[in-house]
Design goal:
By secondary structure, the protein is mainly β. The strands form 2 sheets. Strands 2, 4, 5, 6, 9, 10 and 11 form a 7-stranded mixed sheet that branches. It has a 4-stranded antiparallel sheet with strand order 1-3-8-7, with no helix packed on it. Strand 4 and strand 5 form a beta hairpin.
Amino acid sequence: QVQLVESGGGLVQPGGSLILSCAASGFSVDYYAIGWFRQAPGKGRDGVSCISSTYGTTYYADSVKGRFSISRDKAKNMVYLGMDILKAEEAAVYCCWAPEYWGQGTQVTVSS
């Protein structure tokens, strides 16, 4: 059974950092491309970052380039999203995605 479970969200001040984790089960994290999406209240879901399956090529939305970093640990079957210099408008529920599967999300609040 495929499952994605996010963790690591919380409250951070503007300019602060967080690392989100996505624990995968039922498949290997290098078998599928895995991405992170976010959805703020009243807004649509936006793609943030993605890591490809075979070569681990990374992709980022323009708004987060240079501040966010996606990575994976095959031994732990985990995918991470490091987020630096967070902005208030980036407060959202961040979800992990693999083809046809979604995690439940983790809340990121950016506020002073």
